[in-house]
Specification:
single chain; 325 residues; mainly alpha
Length: 325
């Protein structure tokens, strides 16, 4: 296999991993609607304590050998990555979905490819912004189409609530942008720890953060839930932990090691696309003209970004092997 073919195969595999992660992460937008009887804090605890327990069980046989390769700085990084990419992000996202709905939240979070790509464009050897401009413009047009009706239509909720929902969505965008960039750069520095094990370590730390929130959730509790509601809550919590946090994050970390950060940012588009599909299924309706247009624009954005990254094999180093930080 030539170097050029190997680079193309690596890029294709990275894109497939990014798409798979997006399909699983899109379920996160639906989860708050499935268990509306539970608040953002309770959902965060349920999801991430489950994530932490599953991760700890999977890591237990190899705990000493894996942690021996981690420095103090790596543990600090795991703490802030767990906060920005999981705990804080999910609290903000659930609040945004409860207040503003799936459509509005997916629009705002859909700008992640733009924010991550803009930051990644400063990396050594990254594709210049001028070449990424068509992809970024298509991306912006696509996410605006997805939520045009939700934004333009008059809301029934008070303006204060709508603004709070919008602020939570923007906060989730900022939080996960910081995680995406920081996580990709840490993966590039860790030769002795696999992307899968890094994800599990992140799960253990996130689980501890979730457990620390339990006293606050008990103090805030003011509602009585039925047995069926608790069963649904536990099922959704464990399901999202397995599908989104374990499997989705593993695919994302694999994509982060195979692709440059500017291209990794574009892969987040798949989360927006799948979140919209799940919303349509949940609401039992067909997509509108604007939503169909959004699909086309977002797909075109990814294809345009892929075209911008077609470079000679010796220049197409993935983030995990290329840029030094």
């Amino acid at each position: 296999m030539t170097a050029s073919n190997a680079a193309t195969r690596s890029t294709l595999l990275g894109v497939l991993c990014g798409a798979g992660a997006g399909a699983l992460w899109g379920l996160v937008f639906l989860a708050p609607e499935l268990v509306r009887a539970f608040g953002p804090l309770e959902m965060t605890i349920g999801r991430y304590v489950s994530y932490g327990l599953i991760s700890a069980l999977l890591l237990a046989p190899r705990w000493k050998s894996i942690t021996a390769h981690l420095s103090r700085d790596a543990w600090i990084a795991l703490c802030w990555l767990a906060l920005t990419g999981n705990t804080l992000y999910f609290v903000l996202l659930v609040n945004a979905v409860h207040i503003g709905g799936i459509a509005m939240t997916s629009i705002i979070v859909g700008f992640l490819p733009v924010t991550v790509t803009l930051v990644g464009s400063r990396d050594h050897g990254a594709v210049p912004l001028a070449k990424l401009a068509p992809s970024l413009l298509l991306c912006a047009a696509g996410v605006l189409c997805i939520g045009w009706q939700a934004i333009a239509a008059p809301g029934t909720a008070p303006m204060t609530s709508r603004l709070i929902g919008l602020a939570c969505a923007v906060g989730a965008l900022a939080s996960w942008s910081a995680f995406a960039v920081g996580n990709s750069r840490w993966l590039a520095r860790l030769d002795a720890v696999s992307a899968h094990d890094w994800n599990l370590l992140l799960g253990v730390v996130t689980g501890l953060q979730g457990a620390a929130l339990i006293p606050l959730a008990i103090w805030q509790a003011d509602a009585v839930r039925t047995t069926s509601q608790w069963t649904g809550f536990l099922t959704v919590s464990v399901g999202i932990a397995l599908l989104a946090s374990i499997a989705g994050n593993a695919l994302w970390n694999r994509a982060s090691r195979l692709l440059p950060l500017t291209l990794v940012g574009q892969m987040i588009l798949f989360e927006t696309l799948f979140a919209l599909v799940y919303a349509l299924i949940w609401e039992h309706r067909l997509p509108t003209v604007f939503e169909v247009a959004a699909f086309g624009l977002l797909v075109a954005a990814v294809l345009t970004c892929l075209a911008a990254h077609r470079k000679p094999a010796e220049d197409l180093a993935p983030l995990g092997e290329g840029a030094a930080h």
